[in-house]
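User: Last request for today: this protein with adenosine-5'-[phenylalaninyl-phosphate], please.
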Amino acid sequence: MEDKIKSLKEQAIKKLEEIKNAQDVENIRVEYLGKKGEVVEILKNLKNVEKEKRKEIGEKANVLREEIEKLIETKKEEIKEKEYEDKIKNAEKIDITVPVDENLGSLHPITIVQRELEDIFTSMGFTVEDGNEVETEYNNFEAVNVPHYHPARDMQDTFWLENGELLKTQTSAAQNKIMKKYGTPLKAIFPGRCFRNEALDASHENTFFQMEGMMIDENVSIANLIYFMKKLLSEVFKKEVEVRLRPGYFPFVEPGFELDIKCPYCNGVGCKVCKNGSWIELCPCGMIHPNVLRMGGIDPEKYSGFAFGLGLSRLAMMKYNINDLRVLNSCDLRALKQMKIK
Ligand code: FA5
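Assistant: Here's the final one, the structure of the complex with adenosine-5'-[phenylalaninyl-phosphate]:
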């Protein structure tokens, strides 16, 4: 029996040296350590060994089992490493003679514009925050000064969920959480997907993107708001743009504005993009209402701030001269390819 134990070990070492793949390792494990394997057979047959030798043989068989287990583990690691090295070697073979694939994808126009805006704002000290797509009624409406009886709720035809929550109708829904999270001073933007049960047309989708921005500190004024909006739009359109503010009503800002830009395509002369109106309505904004600050845990006597809700989908539409917003959600590669976005 002792000779058998010795020769089993030698056999296993030899076999393991020769094999090259994981399946063969498994076969060897079964051959020696499986239920009907050689080592297990020795242990099963201990009862037939003379009494005086039984303990010693039993111990040797267990040592053999542990040794074979270790050998198998080492071999497995070796094979794994070899496979990994082979993979890397093959992956690094770049055939520079293969012709370029003309059908390479590109980022979606909304993603490109969103990233561009994020870069601009982070360079001005803003953080980029995330918001939920499913929101509570409190965050989407109550916390931005739109209680359940307020007629402004009708302006945003909402998709309600059975549990009383809703699909976020505006990125403003994240204002309260962000104020509570950071307090003051605060400079944040939060892009996100919004949903409204809209009658669809070339400039209205049921699913669209906005980018909200907020700046809160002591002495923040409308002048700061105008500066940041001008800076942002000049960077997006790669030229100085003229902006104007018109009064606009949103329950969460006071005063509230609609910010228009002088049409960057015709410089206000009149064209199909601005529908000969010279100005394009782009971004509602205003000074954050004291109630909204208070609900966010910020003292309106000490702090003031501005907020804006830029229509990201519409901005992408303008930047890439797309005349129908629905194209952006259509997943129609023919349309996206025509935009030739790199
Ligand atoms: C709002 O959603 C306010 N939360 C914006 C705001 C934020 C005002 C902070 C003041 C302070 P409004 O419903 O106008 O406002 O939407 C803002 C922008 O989102 C619009 O100017 C438009 O560009 C875009 N938008 C709104 N509805 C749609 C739609 N159905 N499809 C595509 N874009 C839309």
